[in-house]
Amino acid sequence: MGLGCAVSAAKLLFPLVVIELNRVRVSVIIPTHNEAQAIGRVLADLPSDPATEVIVVDSNSQDGTPEIAAQMGARVVKEPCRGYGRACLTGLANANSPDIVVFLDGDYSDRPSELPILLAPILEGRADITIGSRLGINRNSRALPWHAAFGNRLAASLIGLLYGLKISDLGPFRAGRADVLRALALQEATYGWAVEMILKGALAGFRIVEVPVSYHPRIGKSKISGTLKGTLGAGWFILSRIVRYYFQRRRAEAARPA
Ligand SMILES: Nc1nc2c(ncn2[C@@H]2O[C@H](COP(=O)(O)OP(=O)(O)OP(=O)(O)O)[C@@H](O)[C@H]2O)c(=O)[nH]1
Ligand SMILES: [Mg+2]
Hints:
Elements (H helix, E strand, L loop, with lengths): L25 E7 L6 H7 L5 E8 L6 H7 L3 E4 L5 H11 L5 E4 L11 H9 L5 E5 L12 H18 L10 E4 H6 L9 H11 L4 E5 L15 H28 L3
Helix pairs in contact: 5-8, 7-8
């Protein structure tokens, strides 16, 4: 991590204000790769208010996903290079002057109708970033397999230990103030995306608030958690980033003149 990007929360140009719901611009970013069976339901369930714009970032789908998304009114951005984080970064770069950016998967595992749950703490001025936790009391064990639940809990515990942030999950359905996300200079193009904004946000002193969301068996074929390559890759990237960013910060602090 370029530690210069770990801008102190206090240095942000915009002090925390309660954002008025009727004026807030919310950009929803949905990465997709062959989600033709699901994307229609995701878009149909997404509340048009307060979602100001919906950007589907598609990587080489061969099943008509981008066409369906465009027909349903989403802006489709093509990202030919694979990578979950890369798709999210491309969406962020293409968002049109948002106040808040939301990330949502295109497989209908998360319920887009729960968007207000994620937005509320930010709109009320209580949070800079919100993460939807799938591991609350209503955990659906068919939707999140045991190895994914275990891995997420382990990573969250490690984050609690090293970064002092109490979270239970690294859920993909999440939201952040656009100015905060810009300040974090996110760059993880693959599985590291799941932790980068949490780790950098915690180091920079931003308020990360977890909210409970429901989680359901995906429609269509898994690209990440349901594959061996995805599981191993995500496990490695997530754990290594947690350790790497922690020690980078420690080294930077040690090198600072007293
Ligand atoms: N643009 C883009 N989207 C991707 C890529 N890989 C995965 N996605 C999308 O990212 C979202 C998350 O992928 P999933 O396959 O659901 O991964 P997961 O949630 O870990 O695993 P599941 O248990 O199968 O749901 C889905 O909307 C995918 O279509 C990619 O390389 N590029
Ligand atoms: Mg999924």
